[in-house]
């Protein structure tokens, strides 16, 4: 390889790295806004249409998987009616690589609303007054500027124990 070809190859690699860095930063901005407006309090239901892909997949251990914007929105409306003070926040900087963004979080809320039966392990009667606080890590895939997947690994067992749905051993 000539020196000229070597320099051109290095320039191309630098441009590719810059493009990947820009994409990672854009994806982190999308996920940061999603975390704030979807999981924060107050929440913004319009963020689902704005940043959620039409066929978004959302999956966390205490709940059945959600498919598509309407399913995700219906889930969050019910969750927030049951837990009006529900709020989650990031606990570390977001990490991005390609289409994927990883975030660590913590949060919870107090069940002061209607009965809630969305948990796969059981349900709560209306206004139980029980509190949950737990943490987790979420991997999100961003495709064409939209959240295509949100898959969480969380301490849902702790939340279920705090809510009295699962008894400690």
3D architecture notes:
With 169 residues, the protein is of the alpha+beta class. Helices cover 38% and strands 30% of the residues. The chain has helices at residues 3-39, 46-51, 69-82, 156-162; strands at 52-59, 66-67, 87-90, 95-97, 100-110, 131-143, 146-154. Strand 1 (52-59) and strand 2 (66-67) form a beta hairpin. The model has no long low-confidence stretch (mean pLDDT 93).
Helix fraction by DSSP (H/I, runs of at least 4) = 25-40%
- Cα-atom radius of gyration: 20 Å
Quaternary state of this entry equals single chain
Structural class: alpha+beta
| Count of helix runs | 4
Amino-to-carboxy terminus distance: 66 Å
The amount of beta strand, in percent, is: 25-35%
Global shape: elongated
**Low-pLDDT segments:** none
Overall number of strands? 7
How would you summarize this macromolecular structure in one to three sentences?
This protein is an alpha+beta fold and 169 residues long.
Reconstruct the topology from this structure.
Layout: H1 3-39, H2 46-51, E1 52-59, E2 66-67, H3 69-82, E3 87-90, E4 95-97, E5 100-110, E6 131-143, E7 146-154, H4 156-162
Parallel strand pairs: 1-7
Antiparallel strand pairs: 1-2, 3-5, 4-5, 5-6, 6-7
């Amino acid at each position: 390889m000539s020196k000229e070809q070597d320099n051109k190859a290095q320039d191309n690699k630098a441009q590719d790295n810059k493009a990947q860095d820009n994409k990672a930063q854009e994806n982190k901005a999308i996920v940061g806004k999603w975390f704030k407006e979807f999981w924060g309090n107050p929440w913004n239901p319009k963020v689902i249409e704005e940043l959620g892909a039409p066929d978004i997949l959302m999956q966390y251990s205490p709940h059945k998987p959600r498919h598509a914007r309407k399913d995700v929105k219906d889930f969050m409306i019910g969750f927030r009616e049951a837990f009006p003070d529900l709020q989650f926040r990031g606990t570390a900087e977001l990490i991005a690589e390609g289409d994927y963004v990883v975030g660590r979080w913590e949060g919870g809320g107090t069940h002061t609303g209607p009965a809630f039966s969305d948990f796969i392990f059981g349900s709560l009667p209306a206004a139980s007054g029980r509190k949950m606080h737990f943490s987790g890590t979420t991997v999100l895939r961003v495709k064409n500027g939209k959240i295509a997947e949100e898959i969480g690994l969380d301490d849902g067992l702790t939340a279920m124990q705090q809510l009295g749905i699962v008894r400690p051993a």
